[in-house]
Amino acid sequence: MIDIRKSKYAGLQKIKAYGLPHPNWKCVFDIKELPLKPWSPAPFGWTIRYAPKGNYKFNLPSVHEIPYQQLKRRLKHQLMEHPELRPCVIYPSWVFLLGGTLMKNTEQITIEVMRGSITPLLEGRSNPDIIIKFTGPYYTKLVEFYGKCNPEELQIINTTRGYALKITGPEDCLLEWSYTTTNDLYFHDWLDI
Q1: pLDDT in tens, 15-24
Q2: How is residue 86 annotated by DSSP?
Q3: What stretch of H or E contains 50?
Q4: What is the tens place of the pLDDT at every residue in 72-84?
Q5: Distance in angstroms (rounded) separating the CA atoms of residues 42 and 61
Q6: Phi-psi region of 10 (alpha: psi -120 to 50; beta: other; left: phi over 0)
Q7: Does residue 128 have a cis bond before it (omega within 30 degrees)?
Q8: Exposure pattern of 32-53 as b/e (b: 16+ CB <10 Å)?
Q9: What average pLDDT does the structure give for the chain?
Q10: CB 89 within 8 A of CB 51
Q11: Those residues with Cβ within 8 angstroms of residue 185's Cβ, 6 or more apart along the chain or in another chain
Q12: How far is CA 76 from CA 8, 27, 69, in A?
């Protein structure tokens, strides 16, 4: 049975609905939906990811840093290769300064942080550089701190935690987030847990 609440597509819609910062993405079901011209600056090229409406899937293929002139050809290939994984989500690529996961439930927020790309963390090849857990009203009580961070990194982590406060109700979730070399904080994946 398909649980659409636990799909990549539904997760992206929740990120948007809660007003969390996210890449300037477009969900594309068909090649004809791709605009002729870029809709956003993309100094590092473009990313194509799958965001199927079916049950949540891990480790889906993605391509990054594609020049816009090649985007239509690559998108056509992606859509033909795995039509069952539609739609594709297209947005500007970035270079990571920090990234990680944020797990929120009614009891606590746990933030895992990687310096650089989060791929090794997501693939289970690396432990986080920093782990921070908060509990209490508005998740202000620090209960665990692992690793070392500088004041700038701590500010980014606190900003990330602040956005988690926008997620109201009984939403137990795991989010992926990134902080980029262009000083943008993005949430780009959501899994209901």
Answers
A1: 999 999 999 9
A2: P
A3: strand 46-50
A4: 999 999 888 888 8
A5: 21
A6: alpha
A7: no
A8: eebeeeeeeebebbbbbbbbbe
A9: 92
A10: yes
A11: 21, 156, 159, 160, 163, 177, 178, 179
A12: 20, 14, 13
Q: Kindly report the number of other CB atoms within 10 A of residue 69's CB atom.
A: 7
Nearest to 47 by CA among 30, 32, 58, 60: 60
- Cα gap 154→97, rounded to integer Å: 13
Q: Is the pTM of this model over 0.85?
A: yes
Residue 150 in tokens: 């500088």
DSSP state letter for 51: -
Q: Which residues contact 58 (CB under 8 A, 6 or more apart)?
A: none
Q: What φ, ψ does residue 109 adopt, rounded to 5°?
A: -120, 130
